[in-house]
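Why do we care about 3D structure at all? Because function follows from shape, and shape follows, mostly, from sequence. That is the central idea of this module. The next example makes it concrete: a single protein chain, its amino acid sequence, and then its structure expressed as tokens.
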Amino acid sequence: MRKTKVELTLLVSFLLVVMLAACDQQKDSEPSAPTPHISGVNEYWVAAVGDDFNSEDTPGRPGKMPACTGPFSIANQEPITCVPGPNSLFAKRLPSDVMNHRMADDVDVAVHALSANAGSSTNVMIWAHSGSANDINGIPSYYGQASDPAYVITGGGSSAGEYNAINKPFHAPNQAFTNGASSESFLSVWDQVQNKYVYLYYGGGRHTELPKCTSTDLRHPCPLSSDPSASVFNDRNERKGWGTGGGPDSMNIVAPVGRIRVNEMIQGHIYHPIYMNVLCEQNNGTRRMASFVFPATAAAGSCQFICTELRNPCTNTDKAPPAGALFFLDYTDAQLALLKNYMPLWQYPMVEALTHYGGYAGDTGNPLHPSRMESEDAYKLAGIEDPIFRWLQGQDGISPACGVTSGQCNLPWSNFAVAGRACPADGLCDITRHIHIADSCVAKGLAGMKASEGACF
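And the structure:
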């Protein structure tokens, strides 16, 4: 039924009052920090939309908004509610009864994953500047436009079937480059003309730059100057998201699952699960390969650690998680509200996301931590400042060397006492009392599988 003009006026007035009240309340309750301009939707509108899409026990449905229509760029990015694969398991909230579907011995395994050590291990998140050898978790996230050069991968390793990237042309910014990590390098492009993601991996720290190219015609693309070690090509609205049959990701999932965007951190919400690293993965009995659970369809190979094969045996050899393990936190909405007012601005978005969506263990090398973040590289190529460093600088718990132009930012994500204030409730700020691992039947349920296929809801 149509609303009258008076009704609509009253409704709009009511919404404005609510939004202003929320704004005033947040200003009074949250610590202040520099807030650089970030393109995208208004923070409070994002939160309201997120609450609507993610209310009660229904799966989150970001990506359904008309605002997901681009074109976008590194300087004018899509809203944080515009999540890749909006209908896949990687955009859905955990079921309300997830605590009834946990992996055996889940708390011990999860706590050991946090504290595992191989001599010099650390579970801090590192946000490093472009070109840094420590930028191992940074993923350059480029936006391809019709006016950008056309490129094509002609060799190297790639995923299978529809996800194979060989000889599939794509648009990318001219001379886009990988991150500068000393051991592994990545490059990711969202070709908006085709609405496809292209994700490249170069082993051995091969810092690579796409060649200078003048052709924008996908029929006449420029071949890459260096073949990647692995690659994947997938639709941004991918409905499945798993089982790529190889590619840059150790779990055999599509791009850019689990990646934390700069805008998500600054705007205070992450509407998807987080990609996690663990020090090492559970042995499958052969001592040659790690075991894995859905949605992983592969596990440790030459680029991953198996617990029994570390030179310095880690502390969780008997308690290691399998590849694909779904970690989550058990906080209630009321507890999250307390934590939001207590934690530094940088820390809360990850805690909220791990409570609502969880995080999948996909790679190895250091104790449990979020390990796929948007890097500075695309900003550098565009000649603009990556706002994450200015935003992080000076916040509680961040390394003093964290700087806008130099100095990496170390984030002790699992230390819930970095704010230096009294915890608002007993036991609330001890992650070991709230972390769990779901049974793989939960991920199967999120993927739309049936009980006969192992789903439990």
